[in-house]
Amino acid sequence: MPLLRVEVALSFQQFGREDMLLIGATSERSLKGEPPIPESNQAVYAQIGPDCCLLDLRTVPSDSAAAVWLDVERPDRSNLRYQPVCAGRAWDCLLFHRTLSTATVERPAFLQSPRGEPDSDLHRYEGRYIIYGFLAAVNTLDVYCEAGALYTDGQDDTSGEVFPPYRAEMHYCEDGRFRWTVWPSILEFHDTEGGIGVSVETPGGSVYHGQRVGDARALQ
Predict the structure, then answer these.
(1) pLDDT tens-digit profile of 150-176?
(2) How many whole angstroms from its chain centre is CA 115?
(3) Which of 56, 53, 57, 55 is nearest to 25 (CA)?
(4) How far is the C-alpha of 211 from the C-alpha of 147, rounded, in Å?
(5) What domain count does the chain have?
(6) What tens digit of pLDDT does each residue of 185-204 get?
(7) Which end of the chain, N or C, is surrounded by fewer C-beta atoms within 10 Å?
(8) pLDDT of 216
(9) CA-based radius of gyration for the chain
(10) 157 falls within a domain
(11) How far apart are CA 54 and CA 92, in angstroms?
(12) 100 inside domain
């Protein structure tokens, strides 16, 4: 480590701190000196032995030897011996990789519904709701209407899984239900004999029901 620190200091003086990236790997040995658990990250470190390396993040000049080298496509440009790299010329520390797109990630079908305009006053949905049925937790969801939009606040909730455990905006969809852009659950309000009820559908298909118990602001 003392030698490495000297190299880092010299590199920072030569290139400038904003142009350098230090990558370090954890030791494969435990504090007691025990060997790593098989198939763990530490076991992989033990096999390849990467202590650390320095990468120069500066833009390569177009008229430099490094630019000519970069123009030639190569499958791999890494430190094949997996030993600490001492920073010298910028292109001595280059690491090349290619990113391939194998698929397009899309939102699940049940979360896809066009936005719509609610046909009722959103203020009627305001209040504190208790959601039942999820473990033994008291799932408390507060709903507010502000500037023509509904917001939920689950900061008093004790589970943090059925709906966002923080303040988040919901939007109304054409299927008559509300969705969050930051959470993969769907919320729907219902008129019941006891007042406004609510149901929350989670990604696994489970549906949890709840009832309004009062004014959210008054209960805080």
Answers:
(1) 999 987 665 667 888 888 999 999 999
(2) 25
(3) 53
(4) 24
(5) 2
(6) 999 999 988 889 999 998 88
(7) N
(8) 73
(9) 28
(10) yes
(11) 10
(12) no
